[in-house]
DNA sequence: AAGGGCACTTAACCTAGATTAAGAAATTAT
DNA sequence: ATAATTTCTTAATCTAGGTTAAGTGCCCTT
């Protein structure tokens, strides 16, 4: 299991004291599958780091159709960035897909940490930049690739997720209906 | 015209000396429309801030179809974040659409600035976070809205751009062909 | 001022993926 | 175990948006 400190150490070096301070501002909790950590309409007051298990963020259209924004498994960060930084009610739900242990950082604590350990500004800058790059790529993929190509890309990028999460969520992530996804999968298997 | 210093001042306060230092690490240049500042396959060594005029970033599929990632006009930042942070050849072109004045920061200079003015880590963190949020929103819009709804959203978000940039680029940005865009526009005008 | 590209429009036809519906398989709960 | 609920599959039908093609108008350039 990759710890949150190892995750930070990938980009900035914290002293033992800083590490301790950092951990003191976090809270680690277990959650059962199906738990909703955050609902649309609420203000996101925390950011989440996944120690183990799987989470997803998604929104709901017209009270019917879900769209998966993100999956997060071991070693990933997840949250509702819009609500978190704006302080306004968000559109995202955050759900546990597989029993998970999650490190929680409140916005208050994160602000304090920025004051006390300025290096963390760099860390979260790099995190945001990397996330931005992958969103840009996904956006361009959605504009230029077919559903089949997006699925293949998803498989090579997140090979472990395919076995673990219901395929309707993967369909939603790549932007097709579950029915079409099923048809497409059958077609690919014949090849 | 909004200066780059005012843009920074929105999020962090620099002292006069810091402001001077910052400007000394930048270069401001005029560019004629149609100039290509960066091509796919090149490594992006700079980030760009637009003083005036309009730029766009886009990629090209199979040597044929362009997809617009971004427009940038007065007061916006633009570049190829993937190539810039990875140091690898990128997929994006950066083109001037309307005669422009652009502030250029090289990666080297930006790294030095991070050392000398740590507050800039915060500024660029906030910049990346905001950009991330708008990419997430655009991604979800592409998954859940019709072309017509995306167009309406584009109009209310970037009212000035509609008059100024060729509509085929706007079609590309919202993710439809120029022909369909034209048809859709005619349909909307009838209402 | 003339001509050569672009940018835009229109229209006929086409297709990837959506929708609807019904049944089968797999999980979950009791 | 068994019932209940979800998830997945299959198939028929439909549509938003793509493709192809032809024509119009409008900047640019010289």
TrEMBL record, chains A, B:
Pfam families given in the database record: cNMP_binding (PF00027)
All residue ranges annotated as the Cyclic nucleotide-binding domain in the record: 29-115
InterPro entries, per the entry: cNMP-bd_dom, cNMP-bd_dom_sf, RmlC-like_jellyroll
Protein name according to UniProt: Crp/Fnr family transcriptional regulator
